[in-house]
Design goal:
Structural class: alpha+beta
Helix content: 40-55%
Strand content: 5-15%
Number of helices: 4
Strand order of the largest sheet: 2-1-3-4
Distance between the termini: 60 Å
CATH topology: Glutaredoxin
Largest sheet: 4 strands, mixed
Length: 124
Amino acid sequence: MKKLLALIIAGLAAFALAACKPAGKPDADVIVFYSPTCPHCHKAMEFLDKVKDEYPEVTTAYLNTQVRENSMKMREYTARLGQNRQGYVPFAVFGGQVGITGFGTEDTTGAQYIEQIKALQAAK
């Protein structure tokens, strides 16, 4: 019985550690906070993946807001950047200075992303 209890506790601890692991690199030029169930988030990430080869110096990280640490980090950014729509995803942060909430189309929000990415690349 003690062995079974120890095995269950070890399994739960391993699961908890895996669930708390932050996704992506927090020091990236572009940080996209997303939810795995958000279709607009996936459109934003697909767009950034599509254009990444055009801007190789600009690094991108995707942070899942279902991970508590990432959700807290997103709240810090939204507060610091004066975003009034805290908790809305996707939320993309460019150079730690500009935040864009949501993703419409490649022609609208995608164009805003490209403008920010070009500015980041020019600054490098």
